Amino acid sequence: MNVSTGGGRPWSRAHLAALVCAIALLPTPSHAAPTEPDPRDDKSVEGIRAELNGLYREAEIATEAYNTADVKAAGQKKRLSSLRKDLSRSEDRMRDLRNLAGAAARTQYRGGDLASTGIQLLLGDHPDQALAEASQARQALRSLVTVSDSQQSARDEVSRQTDAAAKKLRELKSSRAAKAAAKKMIEGKIARAEQIEDGPQQDQTRKLAQLDNTETQKAKSRWTGSDSGGGAQATGAAERAVDFALAQMGKPYVCGAVGPSSYDCSGLTSRAWAAAGHPIPRTSQAQWQGLGHVSLASARPGDLIIYFNDATHVGLYIGGGRIVHAPRLGRSVTIAPAASMPILGVVRPGA
User: Fold this and answer.
1) Max Cα–Cα distance, the chain, nearest Å
2) Is 265 a known active-site residue?
């Protein structure tokens, strides 16, 4: 039998047989048996975990930046308020001096004694006590002019500082607004992270928990502090700080929170030491910069362990190679291995 190819040339039986054999030898797609595990499962679980950790790190960095900007703006606001009060007092002082000068001129015109005008009483609190011992009208007038000129210079300087402080506050508020916008953007990413966390199937969720447990055990073995056996005990203010922090266990992490119902990482440590009667800086970066540094080997309960190269996380050391800390969004205040994150160093309030 001959079969036409459509191009006018017939195919013989031999040609057809060869074609069938060739088709039979072509590779076919392979399918894993339903019970065969997908070798990509573990990799995807690790990928989910890495993505989650990355998003939470971004959130913590953004939160720390916002907290720092907020602290600076609050401090500048207080400074501006103080300067405005100083300026108001200076202006009141200038008004008193002008009134006094007028009274002095009228008294001199009448040929009277300036002591009766109350010059000594009004000017007695000036630092150089310019008129404290003035007894003659001529001396009193010269002193009055000197004090008036000095007071005007002081008033002008306070006014200059007030204007500069107001400008700086506007800049800090603008910076804080930018940090807040960045923080809001990260919180949007966190919503995505929570969807990722809720997304895995039960088997993947179990594997994520196993990975976390494995990392926890590794972190315990990495601790090199001298009290890994748990022998060191907190005393005094450090004991009060530790007790306060432990009493917050289970309260949720909230960006920027300083209690009493929720905390972020530095909100917990700063509030714990404030409760111990020893206020410390608000943010983890300021705690790293402003508190006394001690070696990791000498860490003792109550010390603060600062994490990551940018000092964006902090936990309160409680001894035995453990910290109490507010971990991240979606978690609550808890105890964790002190070496569960990259350690930058240790600081000790009051050191």
Assistant:
1) 149
2) yes
CB 312 within 8 A of CB 256: no
Taking the C-alpha atoms of residue 282 and residue 221, their distance in angstroms, rounded to an integer, is 31
* CA–CA gap between residue 261 and residue 252 (Å, rounded): 8
Q: Is 110 helix (H, G, I), strand (E, B) or coil?
A: helix
pTM above 0.85, yes or no: no
By the 8 A CB rule, do 268 and 326 touch?
yes
Q: Look at residue 135 and tell me whether its pLDDT is greater than 90.
A: no
Mean pLDDT of 123-147: 55
HSE-CB for 127 with a 13 A CA cutoff = 3
Tokens of 14: 């031999």
User: What is the pLDDT, as a whole number, of residue 34?
Assistant: 41
Task: List alpha helices for 113-248, DSSP H.
Answer: 119-123, 137-198, 202-222, 236-247
Catalytic residue among 21, 31, 255, 265: 265
Question: What residues contact residue 324 under an 8 Å CB cut-off, 6+ apart?
Answer: 242, 245, 246, 248, 249, 268, 315, 316, 318, 333, 334, 335, 336
List 21, 31, 126, 313, catalytic entry: 313
Token pair recorded at residue 163: 């204007």
Phi, psi angle pair for 21, to nearest 5°: -65, -40
| CA atoms 54, 56, 60, 66: torsion sign | positive
Are the CB atoms for 312 and 284 separated by under 8 Å?
yes
Cα 152 from Cα 154, distance rounded (Å):
5
Q: Considering the candidates 15, 255, 278, 325, report the single residue annotated as catalytic.
A: 325
Q: Can 21 be counted among the known catalytic residues?
A: no
What is d(CA 340, CA 215) in angstroms, rounded to the nearest whole number?
7
Distance of CA 145 to CAs 25, 126, 138, 141, 148, Å?
Answer: 114, 13, 11, 6, 5
Q: What is the pLDDT of residues 13-60, one digit of tens each?
A: 444 344 334 333 344 443 333 444 444 444 466 776 777 778 788 888
**Banded model confidence at residue 215, pLDDT cuts 50, 70, 90:** low
- Bridge partners of residue 316, in order along the sequence: 304, 324
Q: Is 255 part of the annotated catalytic residue set?
A: no
